[in-house]
UniProtKB/TrEMBL annotation:
It comes from Corynebacterium comes. InterPro entries: DUF6541. Pfam families: DUF6541. This is Uncharacterized protein. The chain crosses the membrane at residues 6-27, 34-55, 67-87, 108-129, 207-231, 243-261, 267-284, 311-329, 349-368, 413-429, 436-454, 474-496, 508-531. Keywords: Membrane, Transmembrane, Transmembrane helix. Residues 700-757 are annotated as: Disordered.
């Protein structure tokens, strides 16, 4: 697929991700540039909230119902803005004179302060999206390619479920995962809704829509986040902030630990949420100076949490430090009297509390539903064999998991520039919140590599555990701040070279500004060249392509078998059973085949459930009971209860410690209750006899229908094939099969690791 062919798809995705949020932000009171900058998390705020609301009302989530829900939110935003307009004469008063404060006209669409940041951000977006999608040309199927990884299987199943069934309620994901019980389960779904809406708008399959979203969404958000963090670090919209934002938005391409490793490990909704953090932080920091922005800040917060709740700690920690170390000392408006100083500080924190508090209140039903998932997340650890000094070094240099694939990558110039930026911010702008935030993020990363002594280790883990206590995730905010600080450092050097501190006269100032702009544009070009050098590009290509080019889980033989199975009788009318860890469950995301397993993770069932019986004892189908081959046993009952009509076998398992299920791999070839109907290399499909007629089974086994020859069937005296189906009820007595529910004990199941949302 060429770049020309991909451009319309990227454009559609970009419009889906931005237009709803931009319009919402604008009508709620944001000026147009701010509405555009905050559009993506705002859109996902509506995507996610709509998923929950429509799901609770049992209304199918489609483009039509989404637009109705979005219009309702837009009306609320207009009412919010209208309330401020009606109270214009009662705008916030100057605490000293009790007169209305003058309107701040900066930040509008005609303000040239947006030009350099916008140029840098758009360049960064283009680099990330163009290079990221370009790598797809080298993998089988291009956008239709299946990732040979762990978490992405679940994301693909969620996108398929949304596109097919119109359900995306994060509190109803148990209906998708737990086929037998339907037990409740929380999983954030805004990412999957965005992908699904793109798929419907662009007429893409769920897998192609997911792959497109996996590149376009973080590709848009990362440059925006770094640029807005750099802007807010400087603290005012002068030329230094503009240059810093533009350069930071380009430089982020070169960070291994953000886009590229975040992509490789399959943490796509998590990566998107972290990528949105800087935008959400900036919108909240805008609120004290422009309180009408509280509605947009709240909706952006909803978007981030509904992408992935873990990232909320980044926003909360950054805002708490900003308020404590900056806003309390330099409030949004000056005041002279004690009464005025107290009043303005209360107003500042009050508006922040309104924006955050309303967001939490709207999310509370979802968050309460997902409290058990939080316990699951906090159970992870990923310590490494490092010394204490090495843990600090790795955290500061952002050398965590998989960065060794970026061979010879030297980030020393970046760290020096970030150091210059940090010194300038502390000395010049009295900015302490950003360095302290960076230090705490580094400490949490080091703690994930090697636990600190108590109580520091446990204290840092309060936040770290919400990020699975893994260094390759906790290092992401370190990278966001480092690249933003490097942009500030380079901008400060440019302004010094331009002799900007010398305020001689207006002509000198204009010459200095012009020289700074020229040098800033040149630095932006140089940053793009530096960011896309071979040491980064080789690692980036590996990150995108490595999990796509082998057949660890889904091979070409699996794809052929999926396609064959989709054409067989009853394929979509029952359930298809198999080993959850062998990758066969991708058939659901691939062509909608109703697999029992929508993820490698085991569903929530008890030991005597039909799901467990079919997993541990498929070799007992049709063998009879109590010594009578015609009596129905527990496994036969389980197959009938779950309406299982096929078994799909495709070894081996994802993780090496997952023991092969030989009761399927070998046992299904000999048990009498199923019939082998397909074989291709290590892939085999078995039809459950009781689900089909003799003629249907013979049709599936017709000569040439299976790529490889199938074993012969047993024949009766007349030479006709025998398809055994137990027909007698379980009559009890001696010789019961050793299955759950009977006296004999069996080994406990092998534990399968929990998923990471």
């Amino acid at each position: 697929m060429s770049g020309v062919e991909l451009f319309p798809l990227v454009l559609i995705a970009a419009l889906v991700f931005t237009v709803p949020g931009a319009i919402l932000g604008w009508v709620s009171g944001l000026r147009l540039p701010w509405a555009a900058a905050g559009s993506v998390p705002l859109s996902f705020g509506v995507f996610g909230l709509g998923a929950w609301g429509l799901g609770q009302l049992d209304v199918r989530y489609t483009w039509g119902t989404f637009l109705l829900f979005w219009l309702a939110v837009v009306v609320l935003a207009m009412l919010w803005h209208g309330g401020f307009l009606l109270l214009r004469r009662r705008r916030p008063k100057d605490p000293e004179s009790d007169e209305p404060l003058p309107k701040n006209r900066q930040g509008g669409v005609l303000d040239p302060a947006w030009l350099l940041p916008a140029a840098g951000v758009l360049t960064g977006m283009w680099l990330l999206i163009d290079r990221g999608l370009r790598f797809f040309r080298d993998v089988p199927g291009e956008l239709e390619n299946i990732v040979q990884g762990w978490d992405v299987h679940w994301h693909a199943s969620m996108v398929r479920w949304f596109m097919d069934e119109g359900i995306a309620d994060p509190t109803r994901q148990g209906e998708l995962r737990n086929i037998e019980t339907g037990d409740g389960m929380y999983y954030p779904s805004a990412w999957h809704v965005g992908a699904g809406l793109v798929g419907e708008a662009a007429n893409l399959s769920p897998i192609a829509a997911m792959n497109l979203t996996s590149i376009v969404l973080p590709g848009m958000l990362l440059p925006l986040s770094v640029a807005m963090i750099a802007w807010k670090m400087v603290g005012r919209g002068g030329l230094t902030a503009q240059i810093a934002a533009g350069i930071g938005g380009i430089a982020v391409f070169a960070s291994p630990v953000l886009m590229w490793i975040g992509y490789y490990v399959g943490a796509w909704p998590y990566l998107a949420a972290v990528s949105a953090a800087g935008v959400v932080i900036a919108l909240f920091m805008h609120v004290p100076y422009r309180p009408v922005a509280a509605f947009a800040a709240m909706m952006s917060f909803l978007g981030l949490v509904q992408l992935h709740p873990s990232a909320v700690t980044i926003v909360v920690l950054a805002l708490a430090l900003w308020w404590l170390l900056y806003l309390v000392w330099a409030p949004s408006r000056p005041a002279e009297t004690v009464r005025g100083k107290v009043a303005v500080r209360l107003q500042d924190v009050g508006w922040l509390a309104v924006a955050g508090g309303l967001g939490v209140a709207l999310l509370l039903p979802q968050l309460l539903s997902g409290s058990s998932a939080g316990e699951e997340v906090s159970s992870f650890t990923a310590f490494e064999d490092v010394t204490r000094e090495e843990s600090w070094t790795k955290a500061i240099e952002m050398q965590t998991r998989h960065t060794d694939m970026f061979v010879d990558l030297n980030q020393t110039p970046l760290l020096w520039l970030a150091g210059i930026g940090a010194v300038a911010l502390i000395v010049w702008r009295r900015n302490l919140w950003a360095p302290v935030f960076w230090f705490l993020s580094v400490a949490m990363t080091a703690n994930a590599l090697m636990l600190f002594g108590q109580p520091w280790g446990d204290w840092l883990n309060i936040i770290g555990n919400l990020h699975y206590a893994t260094a390759h995730r906790l290092v992401m905010p370190v990278a966001l701040v480092t690249f933003a600080a490097a942009g500030v450092g380079l901008a400060v050097l440019i302004r010094l070279i331009s002799l900007a501190p010398l305020k001689m006269n207006d002509t000198w100032t204009r010459v200095s500004v012009a020289l700074s702009v020229v040098l800033g544009i040149g630095a932006g070009w140089g940053t793009a060249v530096w960011a896309t050098r071979d040491t980064v590009m080789d690692g980036a290509e590996w990150a995108i392509n490595a999990p796509r080019q082998d057949d660890r889980m889904v091979s070409e033989a699996d794809i052929r078998a999926f396609d064959w199975l989709a054409e067989q009788p009853g394929a979509y009318e029952g359930i298809i059973m198999g080993e959850p860890a062998d990758g066969h469950g991708w058939m659901y995301a691939y062509n909608g085949l109703p697999s029992m397993m929508r993820h490698y993770l085991w569903p929530n069932v008890d030991r005597a459930s039909a799901t467990d019986l079919l997993y541990w004892h498929p070799d007992l189908l049709g063998v009879g009971n109590h010594g009578d081959p015609d009596q129905i046993n527990n496994v036969d009952k389980a197959a009938a209860e779950m309406d299982v009509n096929f078994f799909f076998v495709s070894p081996w398992s994802f993780w090496a410690f997952q023991e092969p299920r030989f009761e399927m791999i070998d046992g299904l070839w000999t048990t009498r209750g199923v019939t082998p109907v397909y074989r291709d290399r290590n892939v085999a499909i078995f039809a459950v006899n009781q689900a089909f007629t003799d003629s249907e089974l013979e049709q599936m086994r017709a000569p040439g229908n299976s790529p490889e020859e199938l074993p012969p069937l047993l024949l009766d005296a007349a030479g006709d094939p025998v398809f055994h189906r137990p027909s007698k009820p379980d009559q009890g007595g001696e010789g019961a099969l050793e299955t759950p529910g009977n006296p004999a004990l069996i080994p406990a199941p092998v534990e399968i690791p929990a998923t990471r949302p």
